[in-house]
C-alpha cells in the first residue's frame, strides 16, 4: 500500500449528506487521513464538526480561505496534500481555485461549478498549476459500469446503435424545500444550485454515465424540461432525445418527481452484436445480451472480469459492494494520481480512470444545452464545448 | 357460460404466427368455435390449413370474398357469427369492411389498417352497420394492466405527471428480411406493413398501453425515428417525447434493434400520490409505489384486486397466466359484446373493455404523427384525429 | 394437426377449481372436445354444469357410472375417447378403473388415488387393458423444466450431488376449512384426501419434479411432518432430508402455512459441472450455473433450446406462457399417445413425456414413506415400491 | 463522534482475505485506528504487511505474544485499546485469551474457537476480566436483518411456525485445496479449521442468522452431513431439520459444492400472521408477506424503518450498502461497548447488538451437534449448551 495522503475538507458539516459520504469513501481503503477542515461557513458549526470528527482544533478553520493559507504555511510533511470540496454548487469554484493556487490537489463533488464559465476558468487553473483534480461522478466508480465500458471498448457490442439512460427519483414529489429540508432547499434554489435542478443534480450523472460506458460523446440534444411541483424554482423532471458521435442515438430520462422511486440510475446500450444493461439497484450485475444465445449474468468479484473491473472490487463474488465502495474507487484512483504527481510520474488526469475537469465542463455544458433546447422550438440543439 | 360463437378466420395459414395465437386465444375459454376460414391467398395453402385444423372442407374457402358470400347465405344458426382477421396490415381493410357489410362482427389484429384513411373509412362502416369490431392490442388484456388503469381511475396516483413507456425488441438487429424470414419480410416492407416499421408494429402497442393505463390521450409528439440496419426500408428504432392531456409528459421508446431484448413492453406512470410499474416479463405483478411507505407487490389472482382485474384472471395467485390468456381476455370481452348484440343489448364498443375502431384510428394517427414529427425540424407535432 | 379427441369429464362442477383448469388445458390447442360429463355427485349440479358448458343434455350424466355405461354403447365415432377425472382424491380410483374397463383412456388429476393399494390396483387395470393413463403433475409440463431435464440427461451438470426442492404455500395459514372454503375442506379431510395433507397435495408435486429433472429416484427419506394450525386433521407443513440413487442427496420442503407465499414451487440441482435452478414464479427461465464463467439465463421460446423444450412452447421468447400452457402440454402429450393407440402404434406410456401410472404409484408411496418416517425415531426410512 | 479507538491486529497478512475485510470495516466510519499488528506467524511476512499498511515498524510485531506484552507496557493513551483476531480457527483461542488477560478488548472472526472446550474456556476469561468480546457474524450486521428481527420482536409475524435458512456456495465444487488455494486449504484442514468444514465455515452463520432473526434457539437437530468432493477431509455439504423453542420447526441447508452459487445466505421466517424473507443477494430489501394484502418491499435507508435498522444504515434508500457496511456495523456496536467500558458504563455484551462469546459457544455446539446427529441413527439430537 502506498503513502497515506492527508486531506482537508471544505463543507461537510455534521448535518450535510455528501460530506460524510466523502469521508467514508476516503477512509475505507486507509489511503487518506482527514487532518483539517473548514466544514461550514459558520465557524462555530465548523468547529463542532471538527471536534466530532476528532480533528486537531488548530486545524479546524473558520473559512476555507483560512485553511488554504494556514495549511500552505505548514511544513511539507505536515500540511494537507489534498482538498476535498463538498459544498453546494455555488461554493465549488472559489475554494477549488484557491486550493490549486495554494498547491493542493482537489477532489470535488459534482457538478464542477455553478456555471459553465466557472468550469472553464477552473480548467485553466488546473492546466496552469498542473495539479490533479477529480470530480466524483460516483456511478462510474462501480466495477460493473467499468466492465460495461470494457465490453464496448473491446468491441463485444460492435458499433453502438441505441442508448437508454435514466435516473428516476421520487423524493422531490412534494415541495420538501418548503418544509425546511436542507438537501431539498439548496438543490431547488437557483442561487445555490445553478441553472439546473434535476438536470444538474442527477442529469449530469446520467449523461456522464452514458458517455463513459459508450466512449461516445453526446453531440445533440432535444430536451423537454419541466417543473412539476408548483412553486418550485428549478426543474424537477426532464427527458431528452440524444444524438451521439458515430450515428448512435439515445434517450435520457431524469426525474425527481417519479413518485416512489429511490435512486435507480440505469443504462442500457445496444450495439450491432450485443446489448448490456446496468442499474444501481442491482449494482454488482452487468447483463450481457448477445445477438445469439442466452443472456449472461456478469458479476462483480468474479475471476472472469476485466482487469479494470477486478481492480475496483474488494471482495469475492456474492459479497455485495455498493455506493460507498464505488465512491471510494474514485478516491483510490485519485490517490494514485496524486502519489504519482508527488513522485513526478503524473502526466494527465486522462491516464487515470476518474472523472476530471473536462468531464466537469461537459456536465456544465450539458445543463446549459438541456435548458437551451427545452426553450427552443427547433428540435435539435448541438452541444458546444 | 353463454353461447359459443362460430367464427371464420381470414389469414392464419400454418406458417403464420399471429393466426395460431388468435386460434388459441379463442379456444381457451370455450367461447368460440372455428368453423370456417380463408387461411391464405393461396387456395391450396388455405385448404391444407383447413384440413390440419379439422375444418369442414366445404367451409375452407379459397378467398375471404368467397367466405363472406357463402357464409352469409347459410342458415342463421349455421353460419359464422364473427370474422377474425389475422393477415398482414395491407389485407386488413378489405376483409373487415366486407365482413361487416355481410353482417359479421369483426375481431382484427392490430394495426387496424394499412393507412389512416382506411382506418377512418372502416369506422364509418362500423358506425353504419352498428356491428362489433375489436382490435387485439394484446397488452391491455393483462389483468395487472387493468389493475393499473383502475388505480389511476380511482385516484390512487393523483394527478398524473410523468409516463415512461417502452417496447424493446432485438430480433431485427440483423436483416432477417434478407434471409427469407416471413415475419421480418412483411413487417419491413412498406407495401405490406404501411408507413411504419417498428412504430407501427410495436409503437402502436406502446402508445395504446400508455393511453389505456393513464386514461389520458397523447396530444403532442416530438419523435426521432431511425433505420439502424442498412438497407431496411422501414424504421426499426424510435423514441419520442410526449405531451398528454392535463399537463402530463412522457417518453416513448420502441426498438427492434435492441440487441438481445425479447419482448419486454413496460409502462411506468407517476402521479402526485404514487407511481405504478408494469412489464410483460413479470406480467402478473403490478408494482405500486406510494409517496410514503413501502412499495407493494400487487399480484394477479389475489382477492384484493379490483373486479375488473379479477374478472380477467382464471387461476389463483401464483399460477402464472401469460400472453395467450391476455389475448383471450380480449376475445372474452368481444364475445360478450357480440352476445349482447345478438340479444339486442349492445350499444357501443366503449361499454366493453376491449380496444375498438377508435383506438385503431388513434394508432394509425400515432404512426403518421411520429413520421411527420421525425421529419420536422420543429419540436412538437400535434396529434390530429 | 391430428384428430380431435372427444372426452367426458368426471367432477369439475362450476364451483370446482381444477376441473376448469383441465377444461382450459384441453381446449387451448384444439385437440380435445368436451362432449360428455358427470360433473358432480349431485345430478342437479351436474346438469347445471353441463348446460353452462354447452354439453348436449343427453350426455350430461347423473353419475360417472352412467356415463361409462351409456357412452360405451354409443357408436364408435360418437362416443368419448377419453375420460378426464378431476374429483377429490377419494373418487379417483373407481371412475378410473371403470373408464379403463369400458375402453376409455384416462387422464387424471394427481394424486393417482386415495391409497397406495388403490394405486397399485389401478396399475394392474392399466396393464390389463393396455390403455393410456396420464397423471397431471403439472409442473413437469413447463418447457424450462423439460430443458432442465435435458441438461441433466446430456451431462451438462455431470454427476448430481445435491438437490433442493421446495413448494411453499401460505393459503392454509388459517383454518379455512372451518370457514366453509371448499378447496380447503376436502384437502384437509382424511376421508377425502387420504393419509397426506400438504405432503399429498403439493409434496407429491415436489418429489415428482425432483425425480423428473434429475432422472434419479428418491431412495430414502428422513421426514418431519407437522400440523401447525390447531385442530387441522392432516399435515400442513413438512420437510425431509432425501437420498437419491447414485449418491445424490437432497432436501424437500413443502408448506401450506408459509404465510404470504403463493405457489412458488422451485427446484435446484447441483452437479459436479454445473447447477440449474427453476421456479414457477419465473417459469420461462432456467438459470444455468456452470462451474466457470457467468450464469446464463436460458429462456423459453428461444431457438437454442432442446427439441423437447421447443416442442412444448407455443410462442417466441418474451411472450410469457404459464400454468395453463404447462397443463396443456400434458394434454398434448396424452393426445399423441391416444392417437397412436388408436392407430395401433402405442406401446408404452414411458415412450411419451407425461407422468403415468408408475409416477402415480411413486407419489402414493412417497406420501406413505413421509408419514412412516415422520413417526419413526430412526433417521432414514427407505422408499419401497 | 466519540473517541477513535486504537487497535492491533492478529493475522491478516497481505494475502489473507478476512483480515483486509476487518481493516476496511474498522476504517469505514473512522472509529478505529490500526496502530499495531502481528500479521503473520512469519515475522518477515508480518513486517512486510505492517510496512504496506503504514504501521509504525516498532509496532509491527513478530508474534501476537510479543504484541500483547509490548503494547500493554506502553502508556495508556498510546497503547492499543482493542485486539482484532483474524487468523484461521486454530489460532483464535490463544491470542484472544492473551489479549483479554493483558487488558485488551477483543473482536474476533468466527467461529469463536477451534473447539467447544476452547470456546467455553474463553467465556470464563471474558467473565473474569469483564472486558468486551465481539464475534463477527457478519450477516446480522445488515440493517434489513435487524429489521426482520424487529418485526418478529414486535409481533408482526405472530407465533413463529417455520424457518428456512440456507447458505449455498459453489467455490469448493472442485478440490481447490489440492491446487494450493490458501482459503480452501485451511478451511478443509481439520488441523486448522476444527471438526467442521462447511458446517463451521458457513453453517454457523446460517444457524446464527436464524436464531438472531427469530429470537428463538435451536433445540434439536437432525442432520445429514456429506463430503461430496473425493479426498476432502471435512464436510462440504450439509442439511438439517431443526426444532426451535416454542414449537417452531425449520430447515437448514449449507453447501460449498452448490456449483455456480456465490454466497447467497438467505432466511425465511413464517409466523401465524406474516412471513419475512431476506437474502444477501438483495441485501437492502426485506420482503414482508402479511396474511392478507400485498407483499411489501421494505427497503434500507427509508424513514419508515425501526430505529435499530436506521441506526445501521449510512445513506438514503437507493444507495446500496453491502457486506463491508454490515461488517462495519458490528465494529461500530463493538466500539460503543468499548467506549462505554472505558467510561465505566458497560455492563454486559448483551446490551449491545453484536454477537458475543455466548453466540460463539452456541456456534461451536452447533457444529458438534451437527456432527453427532449426522453420525447417529436416531432422528433427533438435542443441542446441549
TrEMBL record, chains A, B, C, D:
Source organism (scientific name): Rhodohalobacter sulfatireducens
PANTHER family named among the record's database cross-references: CONSERVED EXPRESSED OXIDOREDUCTASE (EUROFUNG), OXIDOREDUCTASE
Domain annotation Gfo/Idh/MocA-like oxidoreductase N-terminal: ranges: 6-136
Native organism taxonomy: Bacteria, Pseudomonadati, Balneolota, Balneolia, Balneolales
InterPro entries per record: Gfo/Idh/MocA-like_OxRdtase_N, Gfo/Idh/MocA_oxidoreduct, GFO_IDH_MocA-like_dom, NAD(P)-bd_dom_sf
SUPFAM superfamilies registered for this protein in UniProt: Glyceraldehyde-3-phosphate dehydrogenase-like, C-terminal domain, NAD(P)-binding Rossmann-fold domains
GFO/IDH/MocA-like oxidoreductase domain boundaries: 146-276
Protein name, as recorded: Gfo/Idh/MocA family oxidoreductase
Location of region: Disordered: 180-199
Amino acid at each position: 500500500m502506498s503513502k497515506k495522503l492527508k486531506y482537508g475538507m471544505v463543507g461537510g458539516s455534521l448535518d450535510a449528506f455528501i460530506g460524510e459520504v466523502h469521508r467514508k469513501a476516503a477512509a475505507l481503503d486507509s489511503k487518506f487521513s482527514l487532518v483539517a477542515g473548514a466544514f461550514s461557513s459558520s465557524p462555530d458549526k465548523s468547529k463542532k464538526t471538527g471536534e466530532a470528527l476528532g480533528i486537531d482544533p488548530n486545524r479546524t478553520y473558520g473559512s476555507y480561505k483560512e485553511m488554504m493559507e494556514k495549511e500552505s504555511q505548514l511544513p511539507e510533511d505536515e500540511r494537507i496534500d489534498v482538498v476535498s470540496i463538498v459544498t453546494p454548487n455555488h461554493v465549488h469554484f472559489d475554494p477549488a481555485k484557491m486550493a490549486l493556487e495554494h498547491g493542493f490537489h482537489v477532489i470535488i463533488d459534482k457538478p464542477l461549478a455553478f456555471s459553465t464559465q466557472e468550469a472553464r476558468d477552473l480548467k485553466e487553473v488546473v492546466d496552469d498549476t498542473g495539479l490533479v483534480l477529480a470530480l466524483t461522478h460516483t456511478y462510474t466508480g462501480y466495477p460493473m459500469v467499468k466492465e460495461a465500458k470494457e465490453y464496448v471498448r473491446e468491441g463485444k457490442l460492435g458499433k453502438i446503435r441505441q442508448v437508454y439512460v435514466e435516473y428516476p427519483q421520487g423524493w422531490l414529489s412534494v415541495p420538501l424545500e418548503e418544509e425546511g429540508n436542507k438537501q431539498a432547499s439548496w438543490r431547488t434554489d437557483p442561487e445555490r444550485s445553478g441553472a439546473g435542478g434535476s438536470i444538474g443534480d442527477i442529469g449530469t450523472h446520467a449523461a456522464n454515465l452514458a458517455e463513459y460506458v459508450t466512449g461516445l460523446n453526446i453531440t445533440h440534444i432535444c430536451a423537454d424540461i419541466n417543473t412539476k411541483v408548483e412553486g418550485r424554482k428549478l426543474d424537477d423532471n426532464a427527458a431528452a432525445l440524444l444524438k451521439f458521435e458515430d450515428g448512435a442515438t439515445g434517450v435520457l430520462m431524469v426525474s425527481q418527481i417519479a413518485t416512489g422511486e429511490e435512486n435507480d440510475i440505469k443504462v442500457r446500450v445496444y450495439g450491432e452484436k450485443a446489448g448490456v444493461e446496468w442499474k444501481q439497484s442491482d449494482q454488482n450485475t452487468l447483463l450481457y445480451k448477445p445477438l445469439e444465445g442466452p443472456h449472461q449474468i456478469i458479476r462483480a468479484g468474479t475471476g472472469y472480469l476485466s482487469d479494470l473491473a477486478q481492480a475496483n472490487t474488494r471482495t469475492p463474488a456474492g459479497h455485495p459492494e455498493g455506493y460507498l465502495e464505488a465512491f471510494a474507487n474514485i478516491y483510490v484512483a485519485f490517490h494514485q494520481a496524486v502519489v504519482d504527481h508527488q513522485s513526478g510520474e503524473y502526466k494527465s488526469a486522462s491516464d487515470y480512470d476518474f472523472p476530471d475537469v473536462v468531464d466537469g465542463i461537459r456536465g456544465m455544458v450539458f445543463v446549459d444545452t438541456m435548458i437551451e433546447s427545452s426553450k427552443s422550438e427547433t428540435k435539435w440543439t448541438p452541444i458546444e464545448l
